[in-house]
Structure to design on (949 residues):
């Protein structure tokens, strides 16, 4: 198992290196690399000073080396728009994104798996059909439209919930959190639901498909022949058997939710990392773009690694194969 | 005494028609495609021709009779565009872009995946590493960044969508091709004078089609939804040729002031399209799943 | 003869398929006595496995038990409410399936699976369950049961896995065990071992066994009575030795003749010509007539079951009839 983890870690490091190269090349390919670090409206003098300071007059591979060096120390440059170190900027917006993302994902899993298992167990019942019908909507309808409808119904028509923005925050461990206040929760509700719906529908569909397949296997038949109750079968056999693909998807979707937060944060004017990247694309705040990409890549690789390890932990057959 | 032999295709179609939901969805889909194809002839206005638009008629509610003399059945948007026309043309774009991107992603991904699964060795490792790398990134971010870098327009949009999606096809094709590769018929075919490329693409690939079709049914709907999302964020089609996503985005700010139709109607059109595709796709997927057959 | 444990009367199970209704089991009747091993033989599609499932109520839609009765110790099982049936399964009747890799849960340890089976019929403590599990494993001939108990199914060999499945079936001391092709998926050498072990196990525990198989050779080693099925119908029944020596139904004769042990060196292996008819397109009358060398016009009407204890058969032109049997049959 340990060898497996180390092997995966090394692979992850290689991938990060490749991505850093890609981002670096992307910056070169798409525009004047100098524009990444220097705002376009400075005087010629300052421009040349900065060029030399950042080493833009050096050969390419040397610049890449410097780029990597700076990355390792966490120096992503300064944002043109906010005029603060990019890393600080991103970190300050991260808690907001984490609030809605984590809540959405965990909520979707806790609710979606049981619903999906029920739909898979009794696929022709009215309730199951209703669940699947709703899940089709959650799954296929683009999340931006759901966000729109949510605002339309709850904010505009019913006036129950705010149409956007983050609520009051409270300091905890040196970070501002909004889920600890009532007002904060009210503001959190719609964006979280918006994010969660897609995941919920996905979990329901996966759990249902998996359950349906497993219920038809000999394993379930044998368990029934042994007199095990339907509840036992669902809880011990089915759940354990569908856990593997579910956990895999859950992990991968965690990252994807972070990505979708971009859309949700835009609609609800939620001041998170997602909104930051959209804003920076439209204002061409390139240091932020570069930093965002690198951090997202890191996050994804970490998630993939964790999922791989969890997968091996859950499926004993994989453990045997990997250790040889 | 024996009934006429039912070909797999006929059997497939018969099973399909037994599910009422799928049939309804299919009919709706066919209708939408028809409307989209006929759009230039059944709409009173060409929404892309800016000279057609009368600013005075902007933001009018459904049923309003415009200064050009025809009724705006679904109202007008912020530029005075007839929403009915805009929606039909928007559907055209959604379908065009979605299907085009899906088809190219399919062809590209299936070829790469089959090549990787068939060739094995270093080629396989190289290709699959790249694919895995890409798959660990969410499609939407990839598309977002590419669309931002490549600028607005139909072909950059399609390029972004293809890049975001081909990896799914590649992975599936690779899995299927690898398992086909070890089967006897491939060994037999390779021992003939046929070139390996021919064996790969004419013998192996057709057998990999069922799982690929399953992926395609998911990806077409995703394509369309992704395009709409990108357009909504302002990164897709140019403002002069609005797709449904952009129409919705443009109307967003007016929703809070009660002029809901500008966003809602294009939104409904988009949803109906996507849901119909998904329902049809669901049925196809269920029918192709061998593990659900007893 | 000891008392009747299981009484099956006119059992009929059908499946709704795309090409019509298939009667997988069509009016099958037989008894199982306490401590007896009977063999249920037939080709695939003969309905033998479905009979086994029907007894335990394991038929899922689109199949259903359409008619007939199954009585266990006088209690009617057909139509019994699910909760009651569940209490019986594993406790009074148990079943062993063909492929242990698919019947055992791949992601659970052997100990967990045995615990689940035990907890289905009571509330034993952890210690007690472990003891019983180890005993059960030892009884089916698994060496080093302690280690095997904490293993996962894929860590065991095929024969070992099937022994575990058998152990689970015997865990709650059922009176009747139905085995559906339990050795078919195993190596021939392991097959023989398990057969011998089953015989000993059954004798020691006083359990009745219904051994379902397409392999006449293995069944005849174990079973004291043979039941032959074809196209969903019971076409022959009798003490094993007698059925093998003097089969009455041409199909049974065909099965015996096609055994490799009966082969004459240098000559082709004998085969029954033709193939099993599809259950949705059965010929009218006797289902075997198209493949039978002795068929006549009379076979266009379905033969009724002739009962001449201890034999029964379903044929218009039975073979190997001596005068005594003919007289008995006529009465």
């Amino acid at each position: 198992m340990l060898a497996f983890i180390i092997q995966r870690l090394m692979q992850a490091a290689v991938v990060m290196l490749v991505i850093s190269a890609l981002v670096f090349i992307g910056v070169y390919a798409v525009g004047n690399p100098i524009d990444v670090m220097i705002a376009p409206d400075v005087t010629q003098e300052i421009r040349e000073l900065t060029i030399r300071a950042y080493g833009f007059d050096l050969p390419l591979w040397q610049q890449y080396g410097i780029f990597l060096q700076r990355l390792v120390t966490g120096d992503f440059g300064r944002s043109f728009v906010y005029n603060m170190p990019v890393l600080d900027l991103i970190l300050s917006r991260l808690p907001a994104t984490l609030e809605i993302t984590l809540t959405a994902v965990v909520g979707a899993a806790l609710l979606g798996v049981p619903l999906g298992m029920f739909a898979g167990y009794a696929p022709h019942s009215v309730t199951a059909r209703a669940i699947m019908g709703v899940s089709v909507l959650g799954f296929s309808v683009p999340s931006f439209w759901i966000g729109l409808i949510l605002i339309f119904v709850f904010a505009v028509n019913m006036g129950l919930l705010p149409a956007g923005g983050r609520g009051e925050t409270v300091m905890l461990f040196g970070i501002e959190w909004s889920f600890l206040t009532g007002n904060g929760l009210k503001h959190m509700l719609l964006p979280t639901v918006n994010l969660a719906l897609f995941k919920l529908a996905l979990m329901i569909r996966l759990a249902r498909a998996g359950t349906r397949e497993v219920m038809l296997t000999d394993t379930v038949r044998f368990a029934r022949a042994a007199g095990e109750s339907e509840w036992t079968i669902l809880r011990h056999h089915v759940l354990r058997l569908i856990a593997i693909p579910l956990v895999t998807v859950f992990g991968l979707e965690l990252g994807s939710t972070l990505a979708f937060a971009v859309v949700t944060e835009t609609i609800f004017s939620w001041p998170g990392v997602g909104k930051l990247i959209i804003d920076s694309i439209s204002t061409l705040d390139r240091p932020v773009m570069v930093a965002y990409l690198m951090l997202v890549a890191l996050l994804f690789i970490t998630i993939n690694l964790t999922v791989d390890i969890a997968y091996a932990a859950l499926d004993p057959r994989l453990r045997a194969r990997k250790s040889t | 005494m024996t009934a006429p032999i039912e070909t797999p295709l006929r059997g497939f179609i018969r099973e399909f028609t037994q599910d009422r939901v799928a049939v309804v969805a299919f009919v709706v889909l066919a209708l939408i495609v028809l409307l989209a194809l006929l759009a230039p002839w059944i709409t009173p206005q060409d929404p892309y021709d800016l000279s057609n638009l009368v600013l005075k008629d902007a933001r009018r509610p459904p049923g309003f009779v415009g200064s050009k003399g025809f009724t705006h059945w679904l109202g007008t948007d912020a530029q005075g565009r007839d929403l009915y026309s805009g929606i039909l043309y928007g559907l055209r774009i959604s379908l065009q872009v979605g299907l085009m991107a899906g088809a190219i992603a399919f062809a590209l991904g299936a070829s790469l995946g089959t090549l990787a699964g068939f060739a094995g060795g270093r080629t396989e490792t190289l290709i699959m590493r790249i694919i895995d790398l890409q798959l660990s990134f969410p499609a939407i971010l990839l598309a977002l960044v590419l669309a931002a870098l490549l600028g607005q327009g139909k072909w950059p949009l399609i390029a972004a969508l293809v890049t975001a999606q081909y990896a799914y096809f590649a992975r599936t094709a690779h899995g299927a091709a690898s398992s086909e590769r070890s089967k006897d018929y491939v060994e037999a075919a390779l021992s003939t004078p046929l070139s390996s490329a021919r064996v790969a693409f004419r013998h192996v690939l057709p057998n990999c089609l069922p799982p690929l079709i399953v992926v395609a049914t998911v990806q077409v709907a995703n394509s369309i939804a992704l395009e709409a999302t990108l357009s909504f964020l302002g990164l897709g089609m140019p403002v002069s040729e609005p797709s449904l996503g952009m129409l919705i985005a443009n109307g967003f700010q007016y929703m809070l002031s009660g002029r809901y139709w500008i966003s809602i109607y294009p939104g409904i059109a988009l949803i109906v399209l996507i849901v119909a595709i998904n329902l049809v796709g669901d049925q196809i997927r269920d029918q192709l799943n061998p593990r659900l057959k007893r | 003869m000891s008392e009747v444990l299981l009484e099956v009367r006119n059992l009929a199970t059908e499946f709704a398929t795309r090409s019509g209704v298939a009667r997988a089991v069509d009016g099958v009747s037989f008894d199982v006595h306490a401590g007896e091993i009977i063999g249920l033989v037939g080709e695939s599609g003969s309905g033998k496995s479905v009979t086994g499932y029907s007894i335990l109520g394991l038929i899922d839609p689109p199949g259903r038990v359409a008619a007939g009765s199954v009585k266990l110790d006088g209690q009617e099982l057909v139509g019994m409410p699910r909760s009651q049936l569940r209490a019986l399964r594993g406790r009074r009747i148990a079943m062993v399936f063909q492929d242990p890799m698919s019947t055992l849960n791949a992601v659970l340890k052997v100990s967990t699976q045995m615990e689940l089976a035990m907890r289905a019929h009571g509330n034993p403590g952890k210690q007690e369950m472990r003891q019983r599990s180890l005993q059960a494993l030892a009884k089916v001939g698994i060496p080093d049961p302690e280690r095997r108990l904490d293993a996962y199914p894929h860590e065991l060999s095929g024969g070992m896995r099937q022994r575990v499945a058998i152990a689970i079936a015997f865990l709650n001391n059922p009176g009747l065990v139905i085995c559906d092709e339990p050795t078919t998926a195993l190596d021939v050498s392991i097959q023989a071992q398990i057969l011998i072990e089953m015989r000993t196990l059954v004798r020691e525990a006083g359990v009745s066994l219904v051994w379902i198989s397409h392999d006449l050779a293995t069944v005849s080693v174990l079973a004291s009575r043979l039941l032959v099925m074809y196209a969903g119908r019971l076409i022959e029944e009798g003490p094993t030795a007698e059925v093998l020596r003097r089969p009455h139904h041409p199909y049974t004769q065909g099965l015996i003749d096609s055994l490799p042990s009966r082969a004459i060196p240098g000559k082709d292996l004998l085969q029954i010509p033709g193939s099993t008819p599809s259950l949705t397109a059965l010929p009218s009358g006797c289902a075997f007539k198209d493949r039978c060398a002795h068929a006549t016009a009379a076979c266009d009407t379905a033969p009724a079951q002739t009962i001449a204890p201890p034999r029964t058969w379903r044929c218009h032109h039975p073979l190997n009839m001596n005068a005594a049997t003919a007289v008995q049959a006529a009465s």
Notes: The longest strand of chain A covers residues 170-172. Strands of chain A lie at 170-172, 175-177. The radius of gyration of chain A is 24 Å.
